[in-house]
Predict the 3D structure of the following.
Amino acid sequence: MPPVKAESIPIASDNDVVQVRKVVRTWAVDLGFGLVDQTKTITAASELARNTLVYGGGGTVLLEVLSDGRRKGLRMTFEDHGPGIPDIELALRDGYTTGHGMGLGLSGSRRLVNEFEITSRVGEGTRVAITKWK
């Protein structure tokens, strides 16, 4: 299904992570998400934007408003060209981290949205696509 609206945002600094949160909040409100779903969507986007910056060395997020006729959704695709994730299954476990965080970014984000897809190639980068439906 083609997106109704789309925008790409670069993620190269802490300010860009803040910008991603702001834009996601605006789009979630415009889609009519309730406060809980707004918070879940913004939190997932913030975690993945931070991962893109910290672990992927920066990248982009593509925001897309989707409509399949009976429902609307917000899809966010985070992409970097960093070192990649050697073991995705391990990376999705609560508490696993290669940095100094709590290890809840990927697994927590997956729990906050309706659809979660991750692909990664060592030495090439990582792509995480999430969708929240209203």
In short: Residues 71 and 134 are 6 Å apart (CA to CA).
